[in-house]
Design brief:
Layout lengths: L11 H18 L3 H10 L8 H13 L3 H14 L3 H7 L3 H8 L6 H13 L6 H13 L3 H13 L6 H8 L1 H4 L4 H13 L6 H14 L2 H13 L7 H17 L1
């Protein structure tokens, strides 16, 4: 007599993953970031997950400070996607992800990747995550990259805050070679009717004397005098007078 056939049993690990994926979906439906994060990090990394599910996971976790898990969901999606545009189609919130990656200094490499893929996907940057990214770059002394992101903001018709602009201008005190880029930020602030703190304007004037032009130094010096709490700085004024005298003698 032929024994009755039975359906093959699913492997225990597969059954466990199926249960975790179900828990992940329930966590997302309930908008429960803790349950979603716990289920997601427990799923075997080689288990295939649909792009929309990964995007939704990354979005929820990004907004609720589960920063590493949010990036992990994005990374898994990026490996599966046919280009960054597929992640956009799946619903990934690149700006929320960028902000999440900038919450922790150790995640700056992840933030760099998120920023790069955001650009490749043609997603318009939003000001809060963009400013957060500039701050992270400045903290790591990645000054040139920070100025590059500022220029991206200007090209996108975004207006970084005075706080962010001041932080960028302040870089030239430590790195006089950044005088030209700092002066460009200063000019943007001035054109918008803003004023930098006088000490920053003086620092810019000193940097421009070394690595910029005399005209730039004089303009920054005038801004320092005109700013609230500003005033005459004798050593700086003396340096400017000497530079003007040298320039006049050279003509």
């Amino acid at each position: 007599q032929t024994p009755p056939t039975t359906a093959p049993r699913a492997e225990p690990s597969r059954m466990a993953d199926d249960d975790l994926v179900a828990r992940l979906r329930r966590g997302l439906e309930a908008k429960d970031p803790s349950a979603t994060a716990q289920a997601f990090v427990s799923i075997d990394p080689v288990t295939p997950l649909p792009l929309p599910l990964l995007a939704a996971t990354s979005n929820l976790l990004s907004l609720h400070r589960h920063n590493t898990a949010a990036y992990s969901a994005f990374e898994r999606g990026l490996a599966l996607a046919d280009g960054p545009a597929a992640l956009v189609k799946a619903g990934l919130n690149f700006n929320a992800l960028l902000y999440a990656c900038c919450r922790e200094p150790s995640m700056l490499p992840s933030a760099r990747t998120a920023w790069r893929v955001l650009g490749e996907a043609g997603v318009a940057p939003e000001l809060p995550p963009l400013e957060k990214y500039i701050g992270s770059l400045l903290e790591s002394q990645s000054y040139d990259d920070a100025f590059g992101v500022f220029l991206t903001a200007i090209d996108a018709s975004l207006s970084p805050s005075l706080k962010t602009s001041a932080a960028l201008v302040g870089c030239c005190a430590a790195e006089p070679r950044l005088a030209q880029m700092s002066f460009a930020v200063f000019s943007t602030v001035k054109a918008a009717g803003g004023q930098l703190p006088p000490e920053l304007a003086r620092g810019l004037a000193r940097a421009c004397l070394r690595e910029g032009t005399l005209e730039q130094a004089l303009e920054a010096h005038d801004a320092a005098i005109a700013a609230p709490g500003g005033g005459w700085d004798a050593p700086l004024a003396s340096s400017l007078a000497a530079a003007c005298g040298a320039a006049g003698g050279a003509q």
